[in-house]
Amino acid sequence: MARRKAAAKPTQTKPNLLDPKLLIQVGMIGFAMIGFYFTTKSRLDTVEASMSEIQKSLTDSRIVTIELRVEEIVKDVSELKMELMSLEDWLDETLKH
Predict the structure, then answer these.
(1) Overall pTM surpassing 0.85 (yes/no)
(2) What is the pLDDT of residue 26?
């Protein structure tokens, strides 16, 4: 009887870690993550700049409001002073007669 020849065992090779498809996928994921990071950082910088500008304008408007109120109070005090001086003058004249 004839013997069959045994088929040669296929030799196992190491899987290729530098598979082009894998490199492209990893590259795309990395590119997307880096892009997301930089666009988010840019947006946050813009928002932070706007917030500091808003805080500054709020502080400035509060200072202006306080200054206007102080001017009103000074005006009221000077009017009261004038009224008190006229009252003193009137009292002095009334007491002399």
Answers:
(1) no
(2) 93
